[in-house]
Design goal:
heterodimer; A: about 300 residues; alpha/beta; Spore Coat Polysaccharide Biosynthesis Protein SpsA, Chain A; 4-stranded mixed sheet; B: about 270 residues; 3-stranded mixed sheet; 9 helices
Amino acid sequence: MKKTKKNKRGFLLYAFGNKDLDYGKLAVCCALSIKTNLKNNHITVITDEGTKKWLESSVPENVLKTAFDTIILPEEKFKSGKRRHFDSPWITFKAEFNNQNRVMAYKYSPYNETIMLDTDYIVMNDNFDNVWGSQEDLMINNKAIDLQGKRFGSTADRRISNHGIPMYWATVVYFKKSEYAETFFNLVDYVREEYNFFQFLYEYSEGFYRNDFSFSIAAHILNGYVKNGTRSLPDDTLLMSYQKDGIAGIKNTNEIMFLAHKPDEPWISTLVNIKDMNVHIMNKRELLRISNEYIDLCMEKL
Amino acid sequence: MNKGFLVMAQNGQTDYVRMASALAMSLKLSQSEYNKVSIIVNKGQEIKRKEIFDKIISIDNVDSKWKIDNKWKYFWVSPYDETIVLDADMLFFHDISHWWNILSDKEIEFTTHTKNYRGDTTTSDYYRRTFTTNKLPNLHTALFYFKKTKLIEKYFEMIRLIFENWQEFYEKFLKEPPKFLSGDVAYALAAKIMFNRKWDSFLTFTHMRSRLQDDDIVSNWNKELPSFFTTYHGRVELKINNFNQMYPFHYIKKDFLSEEVVELYEEKIYLL
């Protein structure tokens, strides 16, 4: 694809679908939320042949064309794992989790400046328009709150382990084609390859590979093993909806009503209206349930 | 102006000279401009590595557990016009030469804010209730600076008076006073009596008192947190739980200074 001045800046999404979760559809929702809200809205999706074919058969062509400007099918195959998901406090399921390819973002991004997003992230304001042209080579958020405005999760979610280094969330990552960002992604890849060794050294929990951990360690090392060297994005706090939260309804493309569960009394939910705030919706099944409605609302606006 | 570090190391049950020697070696390796270190020891004290010290100052021994009774003497025994006083159980990993330039405009400065191993400013007053109760300036004598001036000599005379009559001073000036002589309290009390000023300094150090660290570390940080020394361009660095220690490091726990650590410093000093 011919590069123009406009698409030297853009968003990068990863969508590797499986039989349990339609990451392709999630990527469409994420992409359309970007298109609806942002002026700089060029989008590249990295996917595989299977997901691409599924999208072509399950999503109308005009929607796909609106959502994605570039589709990249990478050569590398990365190991995938299984992880447990929640769908409300009462339902759990296991699904394939293909997240290790995130380390290739630097290599595959066609942009000089990239914002890489999780596909279950919905953009509902224009804050990302303020990121471009940053002096920073790399920005990642290290603060997160839940729908009720509390610090997200346990200590282990604020740090990568109980006494560990601060957690940087790989949910939203800005990077510029630069020596620093390239070194960062090389380091992330090294941590990914030696994940067990770093687990021993940094004492994070065993289990499936987490980009949050490898990105946090790489940031910490590049900062000279001190805190707070890596800048957050201008919108410095991620808003997270837990996997146990539900969605009560969509009012419009920029307003979603959630049912926020109470962690210690999970049978109690609070209705929370989120308007004009970007939100990471971790209950993927719930997001998929409203995806058609959300796509239609976005397409009406575009 | 003649500038240098001064460490009191009067041995009793604890081998402070060994700690002061490690501190002196860490200063020699880390400081680019000012790295003279003088040590204050008991008369007749043997010192293994005399060459790392600029001056060895002998004073009379004191018969007390913590050996702090002579801590008012710094002004008169220091061989320097400008002195940074340090506790013996400290190590330096990074250059603080630029601090001296800032300090040269001042007569006296104390550390007023300390850091924990993560680099965060400590907030707990667990060890400083006397300071809070009595609104004493939050001075730490583990790292402080003074210049030899008439005013500062008067200040040290006041400190001497408090050291020699600490029970009377505590009774007259302090609510809920400590039951023992505390150097920090005496210096803070003298400062409150003598100076009408706000004490808020850039001087700082990492204070490894356990309760100043993470909430669940209450007694032995060195048993609960992994740490390792590394060398980088001839310098020694310390990482605690993967956090690089950037500030003067007050390790408190004496057994932290293992033989291996001392040997590491001796090896690096030999290569200088």
